[in-house]
Design brief:
single chain, elongated, alpha+beta, 11 strands, seven-stranded mixed β-sheet, four-stranded antiparallel β-sheet
């Protein structure tokens, strides 16, 4: 899947094409009293490793809740598409999971759903065991300029963004062809989104005559030239419209309103920053895991991959249930039974 993820990254704006995805490995240990210890690991740069704690490798603000430091022995983590070495950490003790609210370091990351899941853990007492239910919901990225359903149907979206089994009997060539087709449609959707954002901004600033010209030529421009570009910026659209309509009116409009147009486009485009971050979340619960939708699970531990690609399909809900035996209940039951048997024998 690595080539597919590389193509996706290239398609998600120039910022993604020129920068790496930032990976974080997050471990959460939930205690029987519902408090938790959470540690987030990251790959730090040389300045942080040299002791400059201000040069944080974390995408959220650590002060004052989190303590940060350097890992004694760096270790590798498999993020499915990359293996990264974790050498820095931020850790916090949480009175409850609802206390963990991450604040973005960069303004463009404000509103990123990866930072603010609806997270909870509940405890249910039974005589012989106590059940713990963990749940975290990461909300879907909504308000897209163009619906994904116009390019990928629901089944394709689920497979492409959440994963799934290949049809039985398919070989690697057939599987690659399937993924390549989906990836092509996804890239076409992304281009159409940047076109729609630019179109709406320019259209809102046009007078009635220019709006008519725009409506006449914009789709032709997209089909013949614009649809081949990774990103269709307002300036690019204006130049293309001028060429098609034999005028310079759109470029002049862009020059007159440059600051407003660029600010509005940046606001719409900032969602692409969300895709620069990926988290591998591991949760350890009391007792033994008995039910989960995790990507991987072990005795008491579950693991999920969280990124905004997965949130294009819908809400991502992480769920796990564990059971911890109440040793005292077994002991008390044994004593009660033993006492009962003893009393019954004495009466004989």
């Amino acid at each position: 899947m690595k080539p597919i993820r590389t193509m996706l990254a290239a398609a998600l704006a120039a910022t993604l094409a020129t920068s790496c995805v930032t990976y974080h490995y997050m471990t959460t240990e939930i205690h029987p009293d519902l408090t938790a210890d959470r540690t987030v690991y990251a790959m730090a740069d040389s300045a942080f490793l040299a002791g400059d704690m201000e040069d944080s490798p974390f995408f959220f603000r650590t002060a004052p809740q989190w303590s940060t430091g350097i890992v004694g022995k760096p270790f590798p983590v498999d993020f499915y598409d990359e293996i990264q070495t974790m050498d820095a950490y931020a850790t916090a003790h949480l009175g409850s999971l609802s206390e963990c609210r991450m604040t973005a370091v960069e303004p463009d990351m404000e509103g990123c759903p990866v930072l603010s899941p609806e997270e909870s853990v509940d405890r249910h007492f039974r005589w012989f065991f106590t059940k713990y239910d963990y749940k975290a919901t990461y909300r879907q990225i909504s308000d897209l300029p163009v619906p994904l359903s116009e390019y990928l149907d629901e089944q394709q979206q689920h497979f492409f963004f959440r994963g799934g089994e290949m049809p039985r009997g398919w070989n690697g060539i057939e599987a690659y062809s399937l993924l390549d087709e989906m990836n092509t449609n996804f890239i076409d959707w992304y281009r159409r989104c940047t076109y729609k954002v630019s179109y709406d901004i320019i259209h809102s600033l046009c007078d009635s005559g220019m709006k008519t010209l725009m409506e006449q030529h914009a789709e032709k421009c997209y089909s013949s030239d614009l649809g081949k570009k990774d990103d269709i910026y307002p300036e690019t659209l204006c130049k293309s419209l001028d060429t098609a309509a034999g005028t310079d009116g759109f470029s002049r409009l862009y020059s007159e309103h440059r600051e407003e147009i660029e600010a509005r486009y940046r606001e719409k485009e900032k969602v692409t920053e969300y895709f620069c971050f990926s988290i591998l979340s591991e949760v350890k619960m009391p007792g033994k895991i008995v039910k989960t939708n995790a990507d991987a699970s072990g005795n008491g531990t579950t693991q999920w991959k969280i990124d905004c690609f997965r949130l294009l399909y819908g809400d991502l809900t992480l769920e796990a249930t564990s059971r911890k035996a109440n040793v005292w209940a077994f002991a008390m039951t044994f004593l009660i039974l033993a006492a009962g048997i003893y009393m019954a024998v004495r009466k004989l």
